[in-house]
Structures are given as C-alpha cells and as structure tokens.
Amino acid sequence: MRTVVAVYTGQGLADPLKEVFRELLPDVRLVNIIDDSLIGDVVRAGHVPPGVARRLVQYFHNGEELGADVILNTCSSVGEVADDARKLIGVPIVKIDEAMAAEAAARYDRIAVLATLPSTLEPTMRLVGRQAEAAGRKVTIVSGLAAGAFDALVGGRPEEHDRLLLEAAVNAASEADALVLAQGSMARMEKALVAATGKPVLSSPRFGVAQVKAELARLERERSSEGKEPS
C-alpha cells in the first residue's frame, strides 16, 4: 500500500482533507503529522521564524522515516520552507497550493489572492507570481486580505469570519478575473464566494490531492520502467 504523509501546522484542515483523500485516493495509507504550535508561531512573528522552519523540516524527515512515498505540505504560510526542504528529503514533497497557483496563473490575467493572514497572503502571492513566470505569462495579482477574519475564527465567531471574508472577496473581485483562496481551510467558502462575486474561485485541497495522485502515478511508472528487462 502506498503511503502519503500530510504535515499540518494547524488542526482545521485535517478532517476535510481526509475526505478528499477518501474520494481521490481511497487505497492510500494516509498518515497525519499535526503541530498546531507552528501556525501560532508564524502568526505571532508575522513570518516563518527559524524555529518553525527547523521543526517543519524535521517533520518532513519523520514522514520519510514513516515510509512516505509522497509528503504533502498542507500549509501555504510555510510553502517556501517546503521548497528548500525538497533538497534535503529523499521523497517528493507536494505543496497543497502549487497546482492551484499554476492553474490560476495559466488561465487568468488578473488574480485576486484571498487570505485572513498576511503571513499566508504574501507567500501565496509570490507563488502565483512564480508560476506565471514559469508559464511565460504576465499576470496582475490583487491582494485580498480579510483583516480580522482569522481572529474572529479563533475567537469562536465563525459567522464574523465568513462575513469579513465575503466582504474582502467582493472588494477584490472588482479588480480580478478569478479568486484564489490562500488557505486550504477556506475551501468550505468556495461556493458562497462564487455566488457573492460571480467570479471563478480556486481552492487548494482538491488540487493538492490531485497532484499527490499524479506524483504517485509518476513514481509507479518509474518503478515499472526500472523493473523491465533490458532488450
């Protein structure tokens, strides 16, 4: 059985992502590593501090030791740490938001990135920009920060979180052809945001798991090719 190790910096996405795995990769052994102190430290610092980067890389090493065929990094705030860790880890690391960003950069000229934290917004905007550059496209990236929404959510006011996110989406949509959700946990708002803005909305969980599926298929092809007798 193939094994995927998902590394989380918070609790909120684990159960929804498990459902996507059940749908797209039902035969995979999914192992979750969750350390919700990571996102707390990122939020307090306003960036990824060295201690968070060290712990995250250690969790990637742990995933490799657990027998992972693929490691899934589920947090956009620490995606750039995952980029660097790819040089250190012996199995592929998939970033949950990479395929989503590539899709947005390939299809749309004006892309609004929605987030409830600056520490997530900025790395995701940079990721979309890099994907556009890799595709040879020039795109306009619009900042859509839902200020106060994260505090409302952790403070037990989900309705206020949703209201602030919808407000930020409507404001950003006036300057964009599509909206990208920087945090996987925001995927539950996808339909409501489409209805409120009339624009396409891209969220990362399905894109991320689909990329894991593609990576597992690539590894299987490589193993099959290596196992063939030379002609």
UniProtKB/TrEMBL annotation:
Q: Name one GO molecular function term.
A: amino-acid racemase activity
InterPro entries noted in UniProt? Asp/Glu/hydantoin_racemase (IPR015942), Iso_Racemase_Enz_sf (IPR053714)
Task: Tell me which family the UniProt entry assigns to this protein.
Answer: Belongs to the HyuE racemase family.
Protein name, entry field: Aspartate/glutamate racemase family protein
